[in-house]
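hey so u asked for the seq, here:
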Amino acid sequence: IGLTLLFCTILLSACAGQVDAHVTFCNGGAWRADARLIAGGSTIDSAGGPLAADAQIKQAIDNLPRSNPSVRASWQRKSDADGHIWEIKMESDDLSTLSSALQLIGMTATSEIQDENGERRLSFSGHMGGWIDFNRYSFSLTGGKIVSSNANYVEGNTAHWDITQGGLNIEAVITETVCLERYTTPLLIVGGVIALVLVYSAVSLVFHI
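ran it, structure tokens below
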């Protein structure tokens, strides 16, 4: 069951929340997605409280890697006097897993890599169900560059859609971008090893080890 549908269930009949979703296409067919589900405190409290929402969101997130082992997913809730924000993060090195991940935010999507004169491009097509009826629902795609799209507006290498009313077809062709986050951990490990080697070499010279 999609997180947006879960969110509607949590908020009963109103669906009076806000959803912001963002997908980045990385080099090599990898992708990452971030989503924020936002609701006022009084709305959530009248629908069972944030812990009830936590349990449903946790179940949906935990189920995703079971059917798609290459997908890494996590979530957290931030709460203050104004309300609650659930932050969802998903990523994978396998483009074929993107469609099932996006189902969690209520989107039916397809994506494929195309070769255009030696340039790798990703063709993305998505559709939000007409039942989406939040106060605000935004979706954005980031790549190396936006070749074409039916976005409401394009800002640099990111295309933005306002799909608050649902039922909108999302179409875009974009190139891949380098996602530095994919290399942060390996680089830190390599950097740490190099640092240890340099320290050992320096100590060896001083103490003639």
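The two ends are 63 Å apart (CA to CA). The mean pLDDT is 78.
lmk if thats what u needed
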